[in-house]
Design goal:
alpha/beta; Arc Repressor Mutant, subunit A; seven-stranded mixed β-sheet; two-stranded antiparallel sheet; globular
Amino acid sequence: MQQDDRHIQDIGFLLIDGFALMSYASASEPLRAANLLAGRDIYRQHLFSADGHAGVASSGAVFSAESLPQSADGLHTVFVCAGGGPEHWNVPLVHAGLRRLARQGVRIGGISGGPYVMAAAGLLAGHRFTIHWEHATALIEAFPDLMPERARFVIDGSRITCGGGVAPLDMMHALIAERMGDGFARRVSDWYLHTAVGESAAPQRASLAERHGVHHPALLTALEKMEATVESPLSRSEIADLAGVTPRHLDRLFANRMRSTFVAEYRRIRLDHARRLLTQSPLSVSEIAFACGYSSAGHFSAAYRTHFGMSPRAARQAR
């Protein structure tokens, strides 16, 4: 990989099969636009895959790629783009290749599920980072010493991580501004009608109020506590006390504002968490049952089947 211009920055994208096309495009397209607006090549892109064969997106789109190089040879940054789940990300050859490039001074980044691959390669210890909210639970379960931030993207020296989706547009704005200045980065963002550039610490998901469609402060407090206590569920009285209302008033809030009950909503929150673990982590069904506050795998499986219409094992096989 010979650089014929010392002002060109070589950026690589390691495509792990199942990566989200939107996440990749949101990171790669701003580099293309930057070249067009600059009137010259200031970025050069390279596509890599785990085995040197074509990378296949979750949509089925196919991209020609090459193996990760043995030598950095001018590479400035490599972004790992991953979707799907951890069962596809345990590729020792990729982990070794990323560590090798990191030792040679290459900046390593991860997009969507990419930070999980970085964690598995041992590249996130001592660094601030984020990951797509869907994969956060699996990462925490697999690497309990690591804690992702709830941010759209995080730039921490030689490590760059991003939640995926359209968040790479925000990340690339920051990286282009870092190199070319805020004015030029704004021109690139305007190229894609990206007028509301998000800050690094901006949330990945809609607010609790937006997700549940409620705005009553006591009810929002109750829902927040319920989401935070999936593994060790609290009683109705304990949640009501934390929300500053009586249990009877809490029941009325759920009935009037959500057309539901405290028990039904708590069950839904716990089972949604279980579904994410089933699809995003290697934990056994029994381990997931305990992680979601069920005393036995049998009780958990029955509740899961009633709620989703299939057993946990069938859900995992379908995924």
